[in-house]
Design brief:
Chain lengths: ~180, ~180
């Protein structure tokens, strides 16, 4: 061939094309599009992500610190409670029991205040006040005993027997004498 | 009735009408894009897969489309990139001792209609013998009649370079046909 001008040649597509080519392509593409729509990919803006991370960090730090403070407070209060409630000595416990018994005796009018006698006028208030001081039980007991003896000595035998017949015996009182 | 680009763009930009937009886009451009891809790849099945991928990518990345370029220019760019990727994969898979030009010409022979004219077959073989850039420029200018300015946007080359490439491509093809044509 001597002369040939490509511009004069007809533009043709000579390749084989399968049946329903574009129909198949459209169906496949639309299926993919629908699948993409059903499961959208969430793209997080980096600024929002950074802000959320910071908020999380500060929030977690705040919560963690406040928990620590609370636990410290609890611990302190527990420590205080422990310090305030030191184990009582046996003598203190005995003193408290005795005080309670005396109070119950007063409440039951065992002091004889309703009898109009000298004994009635005697209420060992001083003793009670003295007992509030954390003193050894034995010391208090001796003092009381001395006072009691003094008062008893001031009574005549007839007065004592009269008093004894009008009062009821506190069975528990013997335990601490 | 042929739908205009502005209408397709409007449908694609609205999430509610996006599916309708994809259909309109395919109806408008499937034939032109298919033949553009087919001339680069030659293999029919691979060309079909590549066109599908082109439309899916266009749908997924439509937010990146800017109205300062033509819709078909943007679509051609995606299709060209997808097609070139497939060709490169094919070349990597072929035997190392096989000539790529010979491989492509065999592919042309296998894919051509039985009643195709001899000169048309020669033209396709001549196109496959061209370097990649000259091949692309020639096909877009000769078959699709695209302006140089638009081709420039598709392949990222200056208009001057494109004109030179087209001139050399045309010259090589004519020589190839003159040498190989037998009456």
């Amino acid at each position: 061939m001597k002369e040939f001008d490509i511009e004069k040649l007809e533009r043709k597509n000579i390749y084989k094309v399968p049946d329903h080519l574009f129909e198949n392509i459209q169906n496949n593409v639309m299926n993919e599009v629908k699948a993409n729509k059903k499961a959208p990919v969430f793209k997080l803006n980096w600024m929002y992500a950074a802000a959320a991370s910071l908020a999380l960090i500060f929030g977690a730090t705040y919560v963690f610190n406040s928990d620590n403070d609370q636990s410290k407070d609890v611990l302190n209060s527990k420590t205080l409670a422990v310090n305030n409630h030191q184990p009582k000595t046996e003598s203190e416990r005995a003193y408290e029991t005795l005080e309670a018994d005396l109070t119950s005796v007063e409440n039951n009018n065992q002091t004889g205040s309703n009898q109009g006698t000298k004994t009635v006028s005697y209420t060992p208030k001083k003793d009670v006040e003295n007992r509030t001081a954390p003193q050894p039980v034995k010391a208090v007991g001796k003092k009381e005993e001395i006072k009691m003896n003094e008062y008893l000595d001031s009574f005549s035998n007839s007065e004592i027997s009269e008093l004894a017949s009008n009062s009821t015996q506190d069975v528990y009182l013997d335990l601490y004498n | 009735m042929k739908i205009k680009d502005a209408e397709i763009i409007s449908l694609m930009q609205n999430p509610r009408t996006q599916e309708k937009g994809v259909r309109a886009l395919m109806d408008a451009y499937q034939s032109r894009l298919y033949w553009h891809i087919r001339r680069i790849i030659v293999d029919g099945d691979l060309a079909q897969d590549t066109l599908q991928e082109t439309f899916i990518k266009a749908y997924q990345n439509f937010h990146q489309f800017k109205n300062d370029s033509q819709l078909y220019t943007w679509l051609y760019r995606i299709a060209t990139n997808e097609a070139l990727q497939q060709v490169n994969k094919l070349k990597k898979m072929q035997k190392t001792d096989e000539d790529p030009e010979y491989y492509m010409q065999n592919l042309v022979a296998d894919n051509t209609e039985g009643d195709a004219e001899e000169i048309q077959k020669l033209l396709q073989n001549a196109i496959q013998s061209l370097p990649e850039k000259q091949k692309l420029v020639f096909m877009m200018r000769y078959y699709d009649d695209l302006p140089y300015e638009e081709i420039s946007k598709i392949v990222d080359m200056s208009v001057g370079t494109l004109k030179t490439n087209y001139h050399y491509a045309k010259q090589k093809i004519e020589e190839y046909i003159k040498e190989n044509y037998e009456r």
